[in-house]
Amino acid sequence: MTENEEECLLDKVDLRRRWVSKTVEELQTVIYRLTTDVSNQDVRFQAVPYSLAYNGNFKVLAPSQFLVTVPVRGLGGYREARERRWRYYSLHGARLPCPLRDPEGLQQWLAVRQFTKSLWQWHEADVTIEGDIVPGKVLQVFRELVENAIETCHLSGKVSVLTNSTAVRVAVETSEGPVELELAPAVEIPNAWSRRARWPRCLTRWPSPERVECIKSFGFALLARSSYHWQLSFLQAEQVLLQELDEDGGCRRRCLQAARQMKEDAWCPGSRPVISSHHLQTVLFWTCEKYPHPKDWQVFSRGFLRLVRKLHKCVSQRLLKHFFVPTSNLLQHANAAELDALARKLAAFLKDPQVGRP
User: Fold this and answer.
1) Among 163, 183, 158, 180, which residue's Cα sits nearest to residue 171?
2) Quick check: pTM over 0.85?
């Protein structure tokens, strides 16, 4: 990659950053209004605050695709469950002859009794079955609240609820065009670390032990995104890990931004790419763990190609382990044909690294 190509790519990165900032600012106003009304309807859901700085509730997956976490209220004193029991119920509470599939990777069950403090509303049948807080039922309640809020806030011409998934997704018209947001109710569990997150790994040098303790202090969250299982989320911990990437003067963040720009421009453009910004971020974390020394990240072109090679390997093998929970493959449900097409583009780029190459 030439110096001019590097400069051109980083100019595009800056333009994208400003575009995303403007879009997030506009979306924050809409989501704050909607979730404030949702919270007024049902005390179990909190409003997503408006922030003039970074808003940790917004995660950019692609330029027109966002994940927004909506904190829930009234569940405190979380304890991880140790006992094993089968679940025999449908979302409507009907008894099933065979047990539901046990969760794996980033998924888990959640029972009301796992919290030492809970609002009485979390014991109601609209969100629980046999003592479990069922994400599918939580999403049913939340979807109805969002639909009501759209009407109450007179946002029908700007916001619409999409009906093609269990998750609560909304389409929002912005000044820059339509975007899609997934609104995920989140049980936040601060100052605790999930037993499934076997991190840090033995003999690793990145990040430092002090940084590890700081990151783990932010805890984790459980997101309602599917019918039966809650999804482990480490969005806050990952953001803290990102914030101090280059305190040694390295170019890790620039490499991530450049890879993201190439992904969106050439490797897998479109509104629903086969890999998201979160996938790229995870690839960077693994690369930083493998190359922990400051000298490995002093030259942008070398660091960038190192990152692309790791991405190519993960896509070719259809295997990208979650950084904190490596038993979970983030590409497990990705479209195989799209992954193969991406692998071919990455291979071609690595043979001839040109920014303008499709």
Assistant:
1) 180
2) yes
